[in-house]
Amino acid sequence: MSVAHRFVLRGGTIHDPATRRDGVVDDVWVEDGKIVPPPADATGFPPIDAAGLVVMPGGVDLHSHVAGPKVNAGRRIAPHLARSRPAAVPAIHATGGLYAALGYTTVFDAAIATAAAPIAHAELAELPILDKGIYLLAADDADTLDALAARDGPRCEALLAAKVRAGRGWAVKVANPGGPSFWKRGRRGDHHDLDTPLPDRQVTPRQILERLARAVRALGLPHPLHVHTANLGLPGNWRTMLETMRTFDGLPAHLAHVQFHSYSGGDLDEGSFGSGVAPLVDHFNAHENLTLDVGQILFGDTVAMTGDSAAAEHLAHATGVPWMAHDLHLEGGCGVLPIAYRERSLIHAWQWAIGLEWFLTATDPWRVALSTDHPNGAHFTAYPVLMQLLADEAFRREALARIHPAVRARSPLAGIRREYSLQELCIVTRAAPARIAGLAHKGHLGPGADADVTLYRPHRDLARMFSLPAKVFKAGILVAEDGQVRTLPEGATLTA
Predict the structure, then answer these.
(1) What structural domains does the chain harbor?
(2) Torsion angle of the four alpha carbons 67, 69, 72, 77, in this order, in degrees rounded to the nearest 10
(3) Beta-carbon count within 10 A of 282 CB
(4) What is the pTM of this model?
């Protein structure tokens, strides 16, 4: 759809951290799908009254799962959740409308095997409104692992470049570095730390991480290596995450769904399992080369899906629920299973508290992206509830009072009084994800930015405020109003 709209949003209260506007009453000028400077002649720019409304850039979801084989497996494995409203794993067409109705205009699928890229793009072509991209699991491929094991940097860079080009990818993702080699041979847990050589190659997970990060930096991809490290979901895995952070030693890297990698203890019992966030966030705060998304869990029913089949198998055995493994050419794959997070569950309550602890103790919101690792931690339509948990300490305290008593007693969350401002919420949902992803034309309202703009009615109930925008514009087109989708333009595919 060609865009030839001109208009001016008049008198809204602007929250735009990238241009340092924090609650400033100002106008936003739009022409041909872009934000433009105020023109010398305003003739032909019809005004839209935004007085009394909060104006922010369109939301950017840096880490989600919306397309490809794993998502389709998720739709099949839990048909009862497909009938929920909204469905735990909504159909691709519904996904675009649901995101847009929340004020989001851009989404990345964070785990697509290279062999599945054509399938994912075929599905994403049916995703309306949103601009979208994919991260490729290139490190699962045998030829990439061979180049990494041989310390052949130029060969690795050439392979990654070819895979990103052929797969029309935006970034390179590694999920459980070297994990498929261990898992195919029945090895898991304490047999797989970062310094254990792969059973079929003379290379360790730590070396895979470091060499991949160097190759991605050398290629100049817009987003750094996107890292789902080893031992996801296992008690005591905070040590693996800390060693992962140390591995990069100044190299840019993005740490995915860190909540699932921040557990203390050696078992799933009341006295052992807990939070390992404190040493991790200290390291993160001190190292500006690292960025992260949290992967917050929120209570309710959902579907877990991950490019880490070993983690899915472990979770299925621990919970007794059915699961599905989906492998592609015996290289990349995924694991899928339904999951129900409950407030009174010891483990689930810890996961909830650990995610919030990350959000509230990471000091620089510009290096943090809000996520639930949709649908793994919660559905993306729950983002407004998460935003209120971050910005309303009384609301958070009421939620804390409902969870497992052992977690209430031991979690540092009870003593944290920090509340996010509207500006900080704008950073972690818009400005920071766009900057981390390398999207210079997203996440802000400065001249040259895409005219992706969301208008909210201010309200003390922040979950209500952020769940029902007054108006949402995508590239200058009104796509949603008061929770109703108005039109379905075709979004762009973002490729590096």
Answers:
(1) 6-57+445-485 (2.30.40.10), 59-437 (3.20.20)
(2) -140
(3) 12
(4) 0.95
